[in-house]
Amino acid sequence: MSETPTEKVDAMPDTEPGPDPPQPTWVVDWDGPDDQENPNNWSPRYKLFISLVLVVLPLIVNIGSSIMSGSLTSLEKEFHIGSEVAILTTTTMFLMGFVTGPLIFGPLSEKYGRRWPILTGVILFSTFCIPRRLWGVVNGGDGGALTDVWNTVVGRGISLDCFVATAFVGPVIGPIVGDFITESHLGWRWTMWITMIAAYSFSIIACVVLPETYAPTLLTAKAARLRIQTKNWALHSKMEEEGETTFKSFAQIYLPTRLHAALLATEPIMILVTLYMSFLYGLLFLFFEGFPISFVEQRGWKPQIGSLSFLSLFVGILLGLTGMVTWSMTTFARQVNSTPGKVVPERRLPPMMVGAVGLPIGLFWFAWTSNPSIHWGAEIIAPGLVSASMFAIFISGLKYIVDVYLIYANSAISANTVVRSCFGAGFPLFANAMYHRLGFPWATTLLAFLAVAMAPVPVIFYLFGQKIRMWSRMTANKT
């Protein structure tokens, strides 16, 4: 006798089926917080070594930005051109390359890792030492690699201080090296040959010793390695979930967009801080034309000796760097530890306020001690105060922008780079006319008054920055 349908129903369990068992996760991540493949867990000594490599490479590029400033007279005589044309074909064209270089190589490093964009940029820089216009274009921002290996707010801040210092130290060293090469038996062309040799030498060293530091790229490589070892082809990284990037999609997502224009057009913090930083960057390259006028033309020093006056700027930058690092390790570190997990951007501004006071004082001092009847020792101290103040303002402004915009930080820094590079490229073009028509004292006094006009910027944001951030539509950090 066959079973009835009722009997079949009775034989079934009287409970509902349970949920499906959890599916395995095939996304590759670090093997815990202490994974030695994670750059954050590398030894302090190895981190310092990588940081040194990452600082030396942009230092060479920045030396190249001003190394030919001491060769302008030779260029004018040999090619029968005016001073403005000589400046245009050397310093200005180089700095205009900075407008496009970081916008290309910076995003590339976020898609393909830090190592290859950095190495590609410095190798191309070495190759294009002869067609100078392309030097700046192939310069890529490799500061991101420093943030990969330093995982604390203070550590990242100090490494960024050292990295940004190369943007000031390099251009200051350039004229000294360039003048001595130009006035030697080698001649002005060897300023480029020596730069190329140095760049290629450090490129080879970097190819051997510089590792990949970008976590998403390292995890992608780890996933590929595990797929081969385990034969589990489902293993993948989060970056691989995004799929292949075509040139069109890369251009649409990463290259300059309306976001950059919006930041510069609608954000008071972005507008004023960028304007202040751009003025400083223009002032730095203006000095490369002004110092020879004051020390060589007016005081009658030889070009090589006159170029040594830039050491005053160099010492000032080192003092500014020392002050910023000390402040980061003491006062700022205590503030960060008092509110863990909370970023207060206005905490970055006290050094900027100190620099805002020191800058006009140094410029007025420089202006009215430039008379040849006054001992040169009184004049040579002033640029040190100027450069120390400039560095404090510049690095504090940069960190403030990053802390304010957070998820938009890359776009904010890119927009800032474009504007200040234009200022740096443009200021040297009117330097000779300004200094010779107004006279060195009054021309420098004009710059001092501009510095006075901009001095309230950090004070305003220190007092009212939080309210301004609350009003902003693009400020990610409103705390």
UniProtKB/TrEMBL annotation:
Membrane topology: Multi-pass membrane protein
GO cellular component: plasma membrane
Transmembrane segments: 48-65, 85-106, 158-178, 190-211, 269-288, 308-329, 349-368, 380-402, 442-464
Domain of life assignment: Eukaryota
GO molecular function, one term: transmembrane transporter activity
Subcellular location: Cell membrane
Principal cellular location given in the protein's record: membrane
Keywords recorded for this protein, A-Z: Membrane, Transmembrane, Transmembrane helix
Disordered: region residues: 1-34
Family: Belongs to the major facilitator superfamily.
PANTHER family: MAJOR FACILITATOR SUPERFAMILY, MAJOR FACILITATOR SUPERFAMILY (MFS) PROFILE DOMAIN-CONTAINING PROTEIN-RELATED
The protein, known as: Major facilitator superfamily (MFS) profile domain-containing protein
Species of provenance: Penicillium daleae
Lineage: Eukaryota, Fungi, Dikarya, Ascomycota, Pezizomycotina
